[in-house]
Amino acid sequence: MLKIDLSGLKAVVTGGSRGIGRAIAVTLADCGADVAILYAHNREAAEETVNMIKAKNRNVLSFKCNVANEEDVEKTVQDIVKEFGRIDILVNNAGITRDGLIMRMDVADWDKVLETNLKGAFLMTKHTVKYMMKNRFGRIINISSIVGLIGNIGQANYVSSKAGLIGLTKVTAIEYSARNITANAIAPGFIETDMTRKLSEKVKEQFLQKVLKRIPGKPEDVANVVAFLASPLASYITGVTILVDGGLSLG
Fold first, then answer.
1. pLDDT tens digits, residue range 50-67?
2. Three-state SS at 136
3. Three-state DSSP class for residue 251
4. How many CB atoms lie within 10 A of CB 136?
5. Please, is 121 exposed, middle or buried when counting C-beta atoms within 10 Å of its C-beta (0-12, 13-18, 19+)?
6. Residue 129, pLDDT score
7. Whole-model pTM?
8. Is 158 one of the annotated active-site residues of the chain?
9. Which terminal CB of the chain, N or C, has fewer other CB atoms within 10 Å?
10. Active site residue: 39, 158, 176, 236, which one?
11. What value does the CA radius of gyration of the chain take, rounded to a whole number of Å?
């Protein structure tokens, strides 16, 4: 059986305090990586994730960081490099929703979602990739969404941000492939997280009717693909979007 070995690598996971981000951080640690998690508000949840990784005898850092603020991002990245020496893996996972129909959507809600979900990934990539270029190695993984490919009513801002991430992934792959840096995206479907738990039972059922497996995915289903893309097993894969949706896109 092939084993994913990330021993000695240094990873950064935005939105790493809970949900998919926590599963990614813990899985990377399971594979041998040291991990820095970034969070926006929930320090308690971040500490829980830190303790989970410490229990695996991996080095772990946590930083409160507004990924939509360039000064904050630049300083945080510098602090991580100061502690870890380098950054090998960047997982842009931070994301929020502010749902509403287009005609009723506040511009502030549009801006906030695009700033966090898309601008945040751009800024993290911008300030991390220079260290990857120096080391001639890097793995950038953007967490998009199936709705970025198929759309979803009431989520014009969220869908646009996730579709934009796929475009950003392609450009990043093209610009930095010569420096042994890959960039890929993952498009999760209906995954059990705090975000999806807030949905009404009716909406949940509508999603599950489209999922071929008729069950929601788990955060670990996404995390496992992240670990694969970060590993030597995926060294010849770049610029692609991998769907982790249980067939939802086919339903």
1. 999 999 999 999 999 999
2. coil
3. coil
4. 10
5. buried
6. 98
7. 0.95
8. yes
9. N
10. 158
11. 17
